[in-house]
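Bug #77: duplicate submission created two jobs. Keeping one. Sequence:
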Amino acid sequence: MHLQTPPPEEPDPPGFWQMLHSVLAAAFGVQSNRNRERDFAHDKPWHFIVLGAGFTLVFVLGLLLIARLVLYFVGA
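Kept job's structure:
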């Protein structure tokens, strides 16, 4: 009797919070190799592109807000 081994199951695609964590970790350069491989194992990069662009926009706007606040409080 010959038993067949089942095909390896593909992991579930990452959820929103996993993708957000990956985008933040990648933005700060601390992404683990295991998470990077998990992220690139799926054929839907648009989720990461949209989250990355959104993070970049929020980051730049946050820096502008901080700069304006500093300038306001020093009287410039």
